[in-house]
Amino acid sequence: MAEGELGVDWGDDDPGLDADVSLLEPESKRQKTGHIPAEAPRASEAKIEPGHAAAELPEAKLPDRVKEALNGVSSFEEYRRKRVFKYLHVYSGPEDVLGKAIKAEATKERRGCEVTSLDKLVNKDLDMTDVNQHRELCQEVRAGEYDGMHVVENPWPPPVRSLAEIYGLSSNPKERQSEADKGTIGDDKCGTGWELPELKQSLEKVGANKVPFNTCSFQQKLKVRHFKPAMWAGKLEGLAPLSRVCRCPAWIIHEPLIGKSKTVKAGRYPDELCEAVAKLVVAGEKNHQAGVLETPVEQAGESGIGTSTQMVVERGEEVR
User: Which residue stretches belong to region Disordered (predicted)?
Assistant: First the structure.
């Protein structure tokens, strides 16, 4: 991930994930015209051969905590009890709905589970711009301390003007000042972080899926929903089928996202979405561990047993 966008570099010098975003019609326009937008593109595979992706990735290493879980076990069930599934959720928000869903699903499967939720609204001392905190987190990820992760990519570009400097920030470099000079009034095309070359390269490198969806498609029990389009991308097995478009009946209310309180409310992951992702996360870890006891430790590191990182990145489209 580009440090300037996410504040987190997950691993290699060549960080990871891709997706082409098809911006959907803004809700305000849809409500005024009654126009039904075209379907969002269905989830698609990044165009890359699996063999090529494997060749590009660094050799997997078996984390110490996995070796400890393997030590002295006589059955797979005993290994499952000792092997705690650890999940990292960066920018989780004040209420980690996804983390709760993953823990609940892990409990159903009789798996120990720990979820680390990082967000400035919860962890007051958290500062991902701090070099030491950034480095420490990256080292933990590289060392295999987490079996899966989810990070929200920040879709907003930095400001080019302020009330005090209405014609452009004095700190603007030449190209940024050019943006301020052009102005943004009437510009209905919003930028997307998915177009960053380093993000594209990283997604292609791991053979990631791209999953566009409308938030309302995961709010089936609610009468008042959020049309808000969003995109997830990652290599979590089974992620692609979660791509859904708005098929709400006419009597459903799509709440306009005007004002901070409503946008914050819409930023909370729907329970249905979290439950669906949690099932995939736990099922993926369960499948990944199958046969681990038959694989010698020295071979396990080479094959990636116990080192699978289910990486998922998500961002919401700007709603004007």
Answer: 1-58
